[in-house]
Amino acid sequence: MPEFKLEELRNIQAEACKTFGNPKRLLILESIWDKKITYKKLLEITELDKVTLTQQTSFMRRKGIIKGERTSEGLVFSVSNPKILAAFGLMREVVIDKIKKDSELLSLVTK
Fold first, then answer.
1. For the stretch 58-79, what's the b/e string if a residue is b when 16 or more beta carbons lie within 10 angstroms of its beta carbon?
2. In whole angstroms, what is the distance from residue 39 CA to residue 50 CA?
3. Is pTM beyond 0.90 here?
4. Residue 107 — very low, low, confident or very high, per pLDDT cuts 50/70/90?
5. How confident is the model at residue 34, as a pLDDT?
6. CB proximity list for 19: less than 8 A, separation 6 or greater
């Protein structure tokens, strides 16, 4: 693969990672996880105000993280690709491992 294409791929990947750099977006993703959920229910679960929820879900839709469809229940959101959940879950495990390791190191120092 020519280098310019790899560079383009890295840029796209970096943009995708930025999408997860916002705690509100992570909350939305956690709330949707492996189910379809209405805007109204998402508003209730996340306790975000309407403006914030609309901004964040719109951003996530543009980035291809979630999708929305109009139904008789209103706007319904779901994760656009199950691989997103796998990546999110793996990253969470990495963070938890780091917290555990840091905690163990701290307990050694404070003894």
1. ebbeeeebbebeeeeeeebbeb
2. 9
3. no
4. confident
5. 87
6. 25, 59, 60, 63, 65
Q: Phi then psi for 15, rounded to 5 degrees?
A: -65, -40
Per-residue pLDDT at 37: 97
- CA dist., res. 99 & res. 86, Å (int): 20
Which residues, including other chains, have CB under 8 Å from residue 9's CB and lie 6 or more apart?
A: none
Q: What is the pLDDT of residue 5?
A: 85
Three-state SS for 93?
helix
Q: How far apart are CA 84 and CA 82, in angstroms?
A: 5
Summarize pLDDT for 1-57 with one digit per residue, the tens.
Answer: 556 688 888 888 888 888 888 999 999 999 999 899 999 999 999 999 999 999 999
**CB–CB of 56/25 below 8 Å?**
yes
CA distance linking residue 65 with residue 57, whole number of Å? 9
The HSE-up count of residue 18 (CA atoms within 13 Å, CB side) is 8
